[in-house]
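pasting input
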Amino acid sequence: MCKRVLQYHQVETPPPQPFFKSLKNTLNEILFADDPFRKIRKESKMSKKIELGLRHVFPILEWARGYNLEYLKSDVISGITIASLAIPQGISYAQLANLPPILGLYSSFVPPMVYAIMGSSRDLAVGTVAVASLLTAAMIGKEVNAVENPKLYLHLAFTATFFAGLMQTCLGLLRLGFLVEILSHAAIIGFMAGAATVVCLQQLKGLLGLSHFTHSTDVISVLRSIFSQSHMWRWESGLLGCCFLFFLLTTKYISKKRPKLFWISAMAPLVSVIFGSLFVYFLHAQFHGIQIIGELKKGINPPSITHLVFTSPYVTLALKTGIITGVIALAEGIAVGRSFAMYKNYNIDGNKEMIAFGMMNIMGSFSSCYLTTGPFSRSAVNFNAGCKTAVSNVVMAVAVAVTLLFLTPLFFYTPLVVLSSIIIAAMLGLVDYEAAMHLWRLDKFDFFVCLSAFLGVVFGTIEIGLILSVGISVLRLLLFVGRPKIYVMGNIQNTEIFRNIEQYPQATTLSGVIILHIDGPIYFANSSYLRDRIGRWIDEEEDKLRKSEENSLQYIILDLSAVGNIDTSGISMLEELNKLLGRRELKLVIVNPGAEAMKKLSKSKFIESIGKDWIHLTVAEAVSACDFMLHTAKPDSPEKISGGVPEFNNV
Amino acid sequence: MCKRVLQYHQVETPPPQPFFKSLKNTLNEILFADDPFRKIRKESKMSKKIELGLRHVFPILEWARGYNLEYLKSDVISGITIASLAIPQGISYAQLANLPPILGLYSSFVPPMVYAIMGSSRDLAVGTVAVASLLTAAMIGKEVNAVENPKLYLHLAFTATFFAGLMQTCLGLLRLGFLVEILSHAAIIGFMAGAATVVCLQQLKGLLGLSHFTHSTDVISVLRSIFSQSHMWRWESGLLGCCFLFFLLTTKYISKKRPKLFWISAMAPLVSVIFGSLFVYFLHAQFHGIQIIGELKKGINPPSITHLVFTSPYVTLALKTGIITGVIALAEGIAVGRSFAMYKNYNIDGNKEMIAFGMMNIMGSFSSCYLTTGPFSRSAVNFNAGCKTAVSNVVMAVAVAVTLLFLTPLFFYTPLVVLSSIIIAAMLGLVDYEAAMHLWRLDKFDFFVCLSAFLGVVFGTIEIGLILSVGISVLRLLLFVGRPKIYVMGNIQNTEIFRNIEQYPQATTLSGVIILHIDGPIYFANSSYLRDRIGRWIDEEEDKLRKSEENSLQYIILDLSAVGNIDTSGISMLEELNKLLGRRELKLVIVNPGAEAMKKLSKSKFIESIGKDWIHLTVAEAVSACDFMLHTAKPDSPEKISGGVPEFNNV
């Protein structure tokens, strides 16, 4: 048992705060936790403030001044490297979104320029992504057929991009970027793996040279669609695809083994496109079942601002598509920006990044681009190629512009099957089963979230997977609050430390006293549970004591150290508990309520009703006080001391 | 500063548990927190087990054995008292639900009988309630007009009752009763006040003798409807209503002042009905603008099981109505049962009560009753009249049956305006502005929830109020997890205790060390926030130190005592934080991770990467270790000690 504590300390109530001040503090904490205007606020001169503000909004002003030739060299090299990846990938993903292939090139021209001005990541390479492309195709395609009504479909894609950008900008401006955090890491792993599986399956269309295909994305529909037309399979196309896939995967493997050879896998798609095109050109393979891209229009992005569709019934479809694809794109882009910033030790303000992404998509939607973000693969290549600043994005944009102006005819003979191989190779990297295993080992619930996202995407639709994983993640948060852990504490021998007896089996409990620790806030959602659970602990303890014929239970010490907050239902519960215990001739003792809890407990009559002497600063002091009462004057009923419980008799 | 701690203690990892065992424990904790089968489980003999099981399901078996004449006397008195309240209230509420008045009597016959067998509360009096009645009228009335299509409307009301009962039974059987807790106390106060306001406004129709009235329930529509037909107002009706209202409120006031005279207010509605009927009968007031009930059918409940509507399009309407009214009814009934059980010191199992409510409504829907629960007013009268067991419900049911068989003709001349007065008098008690003021004083957020429920109901619809208040309550839970408090800890002088320096302003901080306490779990929803916020604390501390030219910051002590759980995103955040701090030449020290957190931290590589020596059991020990390092060998970089951080350099 612990030794007597000589000095008792008082639990204090923090000084009261005026309502509006505390409201302001709370809102500040919710929206400006990272204190983004810290530097600006500290500056006293107005002109300096404006300058810092401009630099805050346009990071280019920050880094452009220190820019030098050394940087330029690095940026040009990495810019060209990512352009060589961006061109074939762009065409492939546009194909995946059922959009004209040229849109993939357009989307690698305007958005990177905007990002270079407004973005704060130095390593992010802007471009379209497979998952958002597929999602666009699946969502818009459900209501408008891309083949029968290509113009409307195209315009809806622009409109969805516009809405996505608008939403991203708004989230950033309102500093609501934390809403994107609702997509947990586990959910993203499952979701990405599912989406990659679905995207790969979709590519079987290109690989097998099929021309009709289902619009559904789930495994069952896709497999049924493939096997129902097995007589239409083109072996030439399949063989060619497998060869390129093998080539791409080999280069990936090499680059993974030797990170210095990253450029091998970065160049592989372009090499595949060139070889594929040459192959078709010389062997006239287009007449033997190999589908080709065909003609691409020359010239840079035509304006599309007049094509945006704001009339019902399509505007809601575009809005919905925009919001969902926009969130997915944000989640990927922000995560990519953050992780590279971590490596290079600089800061990324998520909300500011959202504004940059948003502006880039709004501008994109005005100039024939569809949804772009910062894809992981392209940014990794950028990073490995040694980029220094966002200038690499500008270089890529220029390279793409040159392609658009002069080189598009070269893609005439590019076989679609090569594009499919490029997509499959990129997607296989997204199935991160090791991460899933890691989740299983560390946290079963996270694995469950991941699995449900995966299964939802694979067997349902991409949206179902998304909703499932978000729903289950949120359920977990609610469950944490709804069912907080309560554990019994024991004394670690020869100390005044009290800890969970399950975690520290050597900790000893005291007869006559039970110490319960509540591990979470006391809210309406858990107050009934806590009351029941505490009752059960007491019942069990009394049973045990009755069997061993020890001292009967007299004191219930409730350690509130970990109770971050309490609401009025929680206070009622404590009052109720105090009365219940009083009637069972048990004395409730409270330990270490935090600032919030203490404020509310003293405003209510609770402190008076249990007696000010029965609120202690540490468990050791509370135990010592109980111990003292137990051994000196054995009280016939603890109410006599508190003066609080008999109140109830008057009710 | 605190004195040197001589002995260091180890943080322990609890022994691993097999997956299925821990899953079972978790589910047990979620669903069987109150351990309802404790007694049954402890019994070894099978026959005894069955007996206990039966008694568990049918509490009547429990108390019937000890029943005696003394009890019967009390129960008969209270039963007759509540019957005298139930009859006029029943008719009034049926009127409110746009149902034939006789249904109010039917509903006070069968359901109380069922409850007497299955319910575990001794004080609850079963009957219909105003809010659920109005909700039924509003929801079904939106699609089916009660005047034009009374038969379908009636059948839908039965079906909704059936679905409500089914849902209640299922919730109870699946032990999901905690879902009802989503309606917080604050939400219920606001919701009830709003509903009472709306119900009172609806009564203006009866009071002013109007025959046409809006179907909307919001203040604006109702007032517009009333004032647009001011030429139709009947002053006779209004005057009579005001007189009765005055009488009822006076008796209420008397009973409130002198609780012993509770029977005055309990009898007042019946007295009003009698006097009102006599008044009409003798003065022939029905020809002077006073509307009367008219003929009521003699005889007890006809069966209605064949009237249930399970065909579309109406089945979804009935289902929706049933679920919403069922939840509202449950929330009231369970709260009433619980609070009286508290007074009399016996236990109520919420889930068991739900089954009882559910069965009573299912049976009710088969026998021409609509939704019943345990209304507060009637139960309070029952309690005050000295009821001992659920037999008082049986007595009430018998009294109602007698009325149904023989006395219905007496209600022919009962004026509707009296019913309106009865409803208004009952409703005014529900506007608990004192409770709302109490919320404002204790917890602003709860007040906000209450207010939004009130405004939602009054200016929108009852459903909007419900959804608003639940939504905001849930948002609060999410916000708690999403934005946990972090505070700086200081040492309370001459002790080894560390506490929040805002709560204990006398606590002293140490130069070179910052101690941060995280007050909540570390989950995906807050890990970015925590990382940013910790960064901000460190920035601020470094600024402060720079100004005062004290020791530079070297150690960040993170107190995880209140971190109830951590998920994989949280672990990644800690790993990231450790790397970030390492690069800033700061050493991360962890204090007292709980069982769950410790389990996951040791499974991940985190413990290794910060070094096992840098995880301490108490803040005092951590501080002492840092202090020792600071004063003996001033380390040029703390990495040397930990051996953890340099790993990053190889990445």
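fyi Confidence is low (pLDDT under 50) at residues 1-6, 634-651 of chain B.
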